[in-house]
Amino acid sequence: MDQLWVYDTTLRDGTQGENVNFSAEDKLNIAHRLDEFGVHYIEGGWPGSNPRDIQFFDIAKRVEFKNARLAAFGSTCKPESVPEDDTNLQAILQSDTPVVTIFGKSWILHVEQIMKNRPAENLRMINESVAYLKSQSKEVIYDAEHFFDGYKDNAEYALKTLQAAVSAGADFIVLCDTNGGTLPSEIESVTDEVRQSLVDANTADDFSIKIGIHTHNDSGLAVANSIAAINAGATMVHGTINGYGERCGNADLTSVIPIISLKMNKTCVPKENLPKLKNLSRFVSETANIVPSNNRPFVGKSAFAHKGGVHVNAIMKIPRAYEHMEPAGIGNRRRVLISDLSGKSNVEYKAKELGVKLGSNGYSSREIVTEIKHLEQQGYQFDVADGSFKILMQKFTDQFRPLFELESFRVTIEKDKDQPCSAHATIKISVGNKEEITAAEGYGPVSALDNALRKALDRFYPDLDTMRLVDFKVRVIEGREGTAAKVRVLIESRDQDHLWSTIGVSSDIIEASWQALADSFQYKLAREREIRNGQIPLPIKQSL
Q1: What CATH class does 5-269 carry?
Q2: Separation between Cα atoms, residue 155 and residue 152, nearest integer Å
Q3: What whole-number distance in Å separates Cα of residue 373 and Cα of residue 384?
Q4: Which of 60, 131, 436, 506 is deepest in the core (most CB within 10 A)?
């Protein structure tokens, strides 16, 4: 059977991660994106545990999902109680979802020493809870919590807990590596043993009892463990977008899904939706207000980035020489970085990508490499500053046409004992043969410079209101000189459809900031001119 079911728990397990918080509206927006992407199940939360999840399920009742089935999560009934009277199970039913996921204890240690319960009573709780939910016409997914630890401790009892759920009619039995400490070889062998044991015990074929896998990343193996379980017969995989989750996180679906689809050639989400994966990853990151991890496999900014000259020379000829797949297949793109490790192949590739013609003044790519290596010795870092690198290459090849030039600026900072610092900038620029002098205030010296430059340029370029500075980083290059040390300033800017980075280096932080700020505006204005002149196509709006 090649169909695999993707069960997303970003909205429940993902929110248990440190610094991950979603409002009910955030969760609904993410659910819509997951549904559009084509996951089969969306676990919305635990309605019996907090008001936010109750609110989410109340809103979700009025929403029709096209591809996914919404699941409410909870636990079995409590010891010495019946499901009909259990407040947790009633809250789940009130959420009115077509799918219910409940967890129960598989590890005898938890049953006896944590819950202070009797093994037989735990089996009854599992069996009767599943049976009750099935009687309410729900699809029931049973999560066997701590299953792999429980199986290693007492395999016979761990299997009895699964059988209790199977005999009550559970639609899926999900094996959970809750502590995240199991190795792939163990996951595969235990999953295979469980599948065969359940088939034998119920005189069923392989596909009438459906097994899922739910792994945590405490050993850095959540994705590998998920794949190992699939190899052993699991047909449902649980995970979260970007691997968000408690402690070290859950299996990252942005890796699991492309591995299943493109490496294992099995069916999970529709293949035509895979190019949406990177944007989905970014959307969840932005909603969580967490900076995306550049080195995240498949969807990270650096996943298909090449720095070494030998590597770049090879991918210019045959990309698969240094890439395990075509990046566009999951919505990513190939990037070539420029640094002191670069060769002329890097420069030639990057020049073509950025639309800069080399050799127009006899300046060769090899000479540009030499200049770049010299600048990087001074502290520049062009692999993270495409905007400044394009301007630099244009200067080397006499193609740079500044849209404005600085005549002077002055920045003052004032501090009263009872008031926060205030900054004031006065700037004088020239555009062609015209000059403009403008002053502005800001929350700091860079903010004041930014505001003053915008005001000065507005007379000549009125479309700058779409441009925003979104990130500002300062790094001391060499700290031995103390406060006189050189600093590197990186600025990231964006408009409604594009993102770019610029750099400045100086022993004066204001001067370095100005360099990066000026490059950012020069890049933006030049790009607008190129779009108007048809030198680059109209931008396609995308989730950045």
Answers
A1: alpha beta
A2: 6
A3: 15
A4: 60
Number of Cβ within 10 Å of residue 346's Cβ equals: 28
444: DSSP letter: S
Q: pLDDT tens digits, residue range 188-201?
A: 999 999 999 988 88
What type of residue sits at position 119? P
- Tokens at residue 520, please? 């950012």
Cβ contact 464:486 at 8 Å: no
Sheet of 468-476, strand order: 468-476, 487-494, 499-506
* Tens digits of residue pLDDT in 317-348: 898 999 999 999 999 988 777 665 666 777 78
Q: What is the pTM of this model?
A: 0.75
Query: Under 8 Å CB-to-CB from 262, ≥6 apart: which residues?
Result: 274, 325, 329, 330
Close Cβ partners of 397 (under 8 Å, ≥ 6 residues apart): 356, 357, 358, 359, 360, 361, 363
At residue 163, the pLDDT reads 96
SS3 53: helix
Distances, alpha carbon 178 to alpha carbons 104, 232, 239, 249, 270, in Å: 12, 19, 12, 11, 29
Task: Tell me the C-alpha distance between 538 and 386, whole Å.
Answer: 19
Q: Where are the domains of the chain?
A: 5-269, 305-396
For the CA atoms of 108, 111, 116, 121, what is the dihedral angle to 10 degrees? Answer: -110
Strands, E assignment, 22-146 = 41-45, 69-75, 99-105, 139-145
